[in-house]
Structures are given as C-alpha cells and as structure tokens.
Amino acid sequence: MAGYGRQRPAGWFYAVAAALVLWGAMGVFAFYSDISMSDAARAALSDYDRQLLASRPAWFIYLYGIATWSGLLGSIALIARRAWAYPLYIVSLIASVAMFGYIFAVTDLIAVKGAGETLPFPILIIAIAIFQLWLAGRARQRGWIA
C-alpha cells in the first residue's frame, strides 16, 4: 500500500522525471536570459518587442521567476521521489497561467503578431505544467513519492 512507504516506481518514471528536470532547466535559463538581456540584445529586438518588454510590470518578472523555478524544483523533487513536487507544480502552473493570462489579456500581442505565432509555445508550457502536476499526483497515489 502506498500509505505505508514508498513503492518502487515504474521504469519509465525516472526517464520522464529526468526529461522534466531538463525542461525546467531550460525554463530557468529562459528566465535568466530575459532578466539579464544586454542593451545590445534589446536593441536588436523590434520596436514592438522592446516596448512590450519595457511595459511589463515589475511583478511580472517575479511571476516568471516563480513559474520557472518552482517547475524546476518540482522536477528535482520528483526525481528525488519527494512529495513536495506536487505543491511546487501547483505553484508553477498557477504562476504560468497568471503570467500568460496577463500577456494575452492586457497586451495586443495576438493582434500584432497573430495567434499562430504567439499561442503554440505558451499552450505547450501550460500543457506540460498540467502533465507535471498529474504525474506528481499519480506518483503520490502509487507511493512512488513520499
């Protein structure tokens, strides 16, 4: 029974958890690249993209950091078979939805660049966040994490 200790996870569990750690690391790298962008790199952006970055409220950067770091830490917890992966994934999902919700509800990004260019990657990010949460919940139910 799952309640009496950890069970041995299925063989695929570690491969998926390792892939999620890599995914989380890429998210943290994207966050770091965003917050540390040089003036030269900003100058290379289109006028619209520069204005969009400059118009983000300060809390947006914190939300971005919370979304990426909690996702990475959740994946590390998952591969370490720790139950705190689940609440970390909840935080990551909420922060991601709030972040993209702001971008799409408050800015004119879709009108300017089109849905085909702007929606696929955020949808993928949210889908993976939902999958991470599902996997952590399933692992907890099966006693793979405790």
Structure described in brief:
With 146 residues, the protein is mainly alpha-helical. 79% of the residues lie in helices and 0% in strands.
Topology record:
Blueprint lengths: L10 H25 L3 H6 L2 H9 L2 H22 L5 H22 L2 H5 L1 H4 L1 H22 L5
Helix pairs in contact: 1-4, 4-5, 5-8
Main sheet? none
Helical fraction equals over 70%
Rounded to the nearest angstrom, the distance between the terminal CA atoms is 12 Å
Question: Could you tell me the mean pLDDT?
Answer: 95
Based on DSSP secondary structure assignment, what is the total number of beta strands?
0
What's the structural domain tally? 1
Question: What overall geometry do the principal axes of the alpha carbons give?
Answer: elongated
- Which runs of at least 5 residues are low in confidence (pLDDT < 50)? none
Number of DSSP helices? 8
Rg computed from alpha carbons, rounded to a whole number of angstroms = 18 Å
Would you list the SSEs in sequence order as H and E? HHHHHHHH
Beta-strand fraction estimate: under 5%
SSE-based structural type: mainly alpha
